[in-house]
């Protein structure tokens, strides 16, 4: 029972379905659970309203409200102001074991498209399917989410087992989608079906990169332009067991995947394009017991994880990893900035680690972990200010990890409108700002002894007669009780000045240095026309947690103009203010927004690309007319491809740019080892011709196709070319997945007759040899070792077959030819590899090869007297040959008798006949006599 429970816990989601009522709704507050956190950190909990053991995923909307997903198919909206939750849909789902509604993503253009994406499993008449679908969020009259409509399936595959199904969906800024699916295998045993994870034509055990319509993106490693909807065209990487959660690294642009383990290891992987993470042949960096010996694991190389930890209940152990995110905020201490946060659902822990621009570990997780007892995280995301937020499936809450010392106090702002007839003043504090985007509470002190705490952003208060002026105060508080205040002078019997502001309009946007022109008029019932004072503020928000203001120039008069700021990530606030004789002030502000375009840095090989002014990200919305630099790493993530210049730009890694009037994509060119060799060798260019396809990355092997051949590269073998019939055979034989990458260029043999390449796969050396007479054939392993020991083609000649299996399934062989002489090498695990050729081989063939005499147990060898040649065979027989006697078989008891007399050294000499039968007597004739055999007399030798 304990083992079964432990295995169940290893699933990414609990198998239980919700059976009780939903937990009561509670307001957002600071967590009170017994969690152990580093000093300064607190957990703020928000009840998702889905009950325990149901919350699976969540995502923020542009207004900072949240959509949550439940395993049972519920999709729910959580308003940012704490208003009641609203159910958007109850979708049909299959909830068995790992399955259900498990993935949710919000489209980057949600504000206009209202698109979200969901992954779930759905029952069918004969089983179930796993589906990624697009939905549109409907809204009510107030613009608040009210439901889901317009389901459009983008990716759908049949389900096999109720575990390791469709998992995470990520919606990228460029409109593409990332998706993960587990191997859908039977975790209870060694399931050969898990080898689906290795097959690029099967949609299991993969991370996919999809276009908006669900087809593959052209940059995928196996993309087929003629069939972009094929499974292979969609595959970004393979060899995963259950990539339940992953995120896209903001700098590398690569998936960082948590692969839930089987019996031993949990993995974190920074996944490169075309990567093969090795499951089911490898778990962690170990061959997987029961799987690694399967035929489908032959040639599958280990891809070490970025980090792996053992199963168990130890300090640094766990049982079900949940991949997290890189912390990109600035409110946490410096030691956490840029760190990767991830957790273990079973162990209730969170760790952090760091890796470099090549996806290599630079700092391992804290030992012991510093975030413990934190619930069961099943999804990590970032709050608007960058805080780490995770879905705790065990409690059904969203838990926000906030650092109090980094919390920014809100700024209070308020305006008033006075009704002198009733001495009622209406206060409006809704323009108050919290730079952490936290919900605020509003405390009002009206200055006449009346106080209203948590009264909301808009309140009205009637003042008593007798006093003409009061000083009111607004205090705004965030959830951590950081506060900001402002005072407001009010004169209840005095009309508030009326201020009219004329602006370019709320939809106008501005480029750097473009004039922003505003004007205003002001009248007061008591004072008449009032003078206007102008102030400007640049609101600079490099991140949500670091918004701050830069005061600018001011002025007076009815009109005011200022050039739009050159500060990046900024808007301008132009404020007109008037004050009447009673001291009552009225202000109105126009916010000039930047005209932004998407700047995206891409590269021909995965590499670290940075926009320094935007916090070293590789894509950002930037202001038209802004000038700054972008940078590319000198070395790509693979550690071997070198920067070769910007397309249409400088050769230097730094490029100073000015943002134009449209979106911009800047491409950094990287010369891979394949490019480097090709570009540096004109003779090679002439040999191979022009490239006909993009370079392909398939695990540790890269290759590129040219008009007349291919170049292959791996870290172990370097860059080598394969051409002509050798290449044709190599590809037909399975290429690098079977033989491994080439260790030589295609070259000529010393006799000038043949072309060949050598290859290596996990230490196993193979070759393909081609001649016009024999064609191209593969030879590898023990047979190739024997052929090499016999001096390659100078011994047996060239192969006339690929290595093949014998009909009985026991042996392997290659045939060869040298001139008119046919030879073979046969191999079995019991006998080893041995050569047989010439007249002896012809005789062996007459007897049905291994079906007659068995397999050769020695290479053809010469007798001590130099006259004869012989082979022994596994069934106890031999063939001896001399020029005078020819080749003859000596078998069984007759062979034993001949051996006891000293073989050919005896008076009998060499055999002159095969064994034959006369009148029930078995007999073989020799040069000096003969041997007969009967059951009664046994084997008897006779002289002539």
TrEMBL record:
SMART domains: PKD (SM00089). The keyword Protein biosynthesis does not apply. PROSITE patterns: PKD. InterPro entries: 6-blade_b-propeller_TolB-like, Glc/Sorbosone_DH, Ig-like_fold, LGFP, PKD/Chitinase_dom, PKD_dom, PKD_dom_sf, Quinoprot_gluc/sorb_DH_b-prop. Residues 1-33 form the signal peptide. CDD domains: PKD. Residues 424-463 form the PKD domain. Keywords: Signal. This is PQQ-dependent sugar dehydrogenase. It comes from Amycolatopsis melonis.
């Amino acid at each position: 029972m304990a083992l079964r429970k432990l295995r169940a816990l290893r699933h990414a989601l609990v198998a239980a379905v919700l059976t009780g009522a939903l937990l009561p709704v509670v307001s957002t507050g600071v967590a009170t659970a017994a969690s152990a956190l580093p000093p300064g950190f607190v957990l703020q909990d928000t009840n998702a309203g889905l009950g325990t053991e149901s919350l699976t995923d969540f995502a923020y909307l542009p207004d900072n409200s949240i959509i949550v997903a439940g395993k049972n198919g519920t999709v729910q909206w959580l308003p940012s102001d704490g208003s009641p939750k609203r159910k958007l849909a109850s979708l049909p789902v299959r909830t068995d074991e790992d399955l259900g509604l498990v993935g949710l993503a919000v489209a980057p253009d949600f504000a206009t498209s209202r698109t979200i994406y969901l992954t779930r499993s759905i029952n069918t008449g004969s089983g179930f399917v796993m589906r990624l679908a697009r939905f549109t969020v409907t809204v009510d009259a107030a613009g608040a989410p009210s439901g889901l409509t317009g389901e459009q399936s983008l990716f759908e595959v049949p389900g096999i087992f109720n575990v390791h199904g469709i998992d995470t969906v990520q919606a990228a800024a460029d409109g593409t989608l990332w998706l993960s699916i587990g191997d859908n295998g039977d975790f209870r045993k060694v399931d050969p079906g898990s080898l689906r994870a290795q097959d690029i034509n099967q949609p299991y055990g993969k991370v996919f990169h999809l276009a908006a319509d669900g087809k593959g993106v052209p940059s995928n490693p196996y993309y087929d332009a003629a069939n972009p909807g094929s499974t292979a065209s969609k595959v970004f990487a393979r060899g995963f067991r259950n990539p339940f959660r992953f995120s896209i690294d903001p700098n590398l642009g690569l998936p960082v995947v948590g692969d839930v383990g089987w019996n031993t290891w949990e993995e974190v992987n920074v996944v490169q394009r075309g990567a093969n993470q090795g499951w089911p042949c490898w778990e962690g960096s170990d061959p997987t017991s029961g799987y690694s010996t399967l035929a489908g694991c032959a040639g599958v190389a280990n891809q070490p994880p970025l980090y792996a930890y053992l199963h168990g209940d130890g300090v640094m152990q766990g049982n079900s990893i949940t991949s997290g995110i890189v912390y990109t905020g600035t409110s946490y201490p410096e030691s956490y900035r840029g760190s990767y946060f991830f957790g273990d659902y079973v162990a209730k822990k969170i760790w952090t680690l760091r890796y470099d621009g090549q996806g290599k570990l630079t700092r391992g997780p804290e030992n012991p972990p510093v975030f413990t007892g934190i619930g069961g995280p099943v999804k990590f995301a970032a709050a608007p200010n960058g805080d780490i937020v995770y879905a705790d499936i065990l409690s059904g809450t969203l838990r926000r990890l906030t650092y109090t010392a980094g919390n920014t106090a809100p700024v209070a702002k308020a305006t008033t409108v006075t009704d002198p007839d009733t001495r009622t003043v209406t206060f409006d504090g809704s323009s108050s700002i919290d730079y952490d985007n936290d919900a605020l509470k509003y405390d009002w002190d009206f200055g006449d002894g009346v106080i209203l705490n948590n009264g909301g952003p808009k309140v009205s208060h009637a003042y008593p007669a007798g006093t003409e002026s009061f000083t009111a105060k607004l205090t705004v508080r965030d959830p951590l009780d950081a506060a900001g205040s402002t005072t407001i002078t009010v004169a209840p019997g005095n009309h508030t000045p009326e201020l009219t502001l004329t602006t370019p309009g709320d939809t106008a946007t501005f480029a750097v240095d473009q004039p922003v022109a505003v004007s205003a008029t002001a009248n007061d019932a008591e004072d008449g026309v009032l003078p206007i004072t102008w102030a400007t503020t640049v609101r600079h928000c490099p991140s949500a947690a670091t918004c701050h203001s830069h005061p600018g120039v001011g002025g007076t008069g009815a009109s005011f103009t200022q050039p739009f700021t050159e500060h990046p990530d900024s808007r301008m606030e132009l404020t007109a203010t008037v004050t009447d004789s009673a001291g009552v002030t009225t202000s109105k502000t126009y916010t000039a927004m930047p005209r932004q375009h998407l700047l995206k840095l891409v590269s021909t090989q995965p590499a670290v690309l940075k926009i320094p002014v935007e916090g070293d990200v590789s894509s950002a919305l930037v202001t038209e007319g802004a000038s700054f630099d972008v940078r590319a790493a000198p070395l790509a993530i693979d550690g071997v491809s070198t920067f070769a210049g910007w397309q249409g730009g400088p050769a230097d890694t730094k490029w100073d740019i000015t943002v134009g009037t449209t979106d911009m994509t800047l491409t950094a060119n990287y010369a891979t080892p394949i490019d480097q060799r090709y570009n540096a060798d004109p003779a090679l260019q002439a040999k191979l011709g022009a490239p006909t396809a993009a370079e392909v990355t398939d695990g540790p092997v890269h290759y590129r196709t040219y008009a007349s051949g291919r170049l292959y590269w791996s870290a172990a073998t370097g860059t080598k070319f394969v051409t002509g019939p050798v290449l044709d055979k190599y590809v037909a034989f399975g290429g690098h997945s079977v033989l491994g990458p080439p260790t030589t260029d295609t070259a000529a043999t010393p006799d000038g007759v043949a072309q060949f390449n050598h290859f290596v796969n996990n230490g196993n050396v193979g070759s393909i040899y081609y001649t016009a007479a024999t064609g191209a054939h593969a030879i590898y392993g023990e047979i190739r070792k024997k052929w090499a020991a016999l001096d390659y083609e100078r011994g047996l000649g060239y192969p006339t077959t690929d290595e093949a299996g014998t009909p009985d399934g026991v042996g392997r062989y290659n045939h060869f030819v040298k001139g008119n002489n046919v030879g073979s090498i046969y191999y079995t695990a019991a006998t080893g590899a041995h050569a047989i050729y010439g007249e002896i081989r012809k005789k062996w063939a007459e007897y049905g090869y291994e079906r007659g005499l068995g397999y050769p147990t020695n290479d053809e060898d010469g007798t001590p007297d130099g006259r004869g040649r012989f082979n022994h065979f596994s069934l106890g027989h031999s063939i001896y040959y001399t020029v005078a006697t020819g080749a003859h078989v000596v078998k069984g008891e007759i062979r034993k008798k001949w051996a006891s007399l000293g073989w050919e050294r005896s008076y009998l000499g060499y055999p002159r006949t095969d064994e034959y039968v006369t009148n029930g007597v078995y007999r073989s004739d020799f040069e000096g006599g003969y041997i007969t055999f009967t059951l009664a007399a046994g084997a008897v030798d006779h002289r002539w």
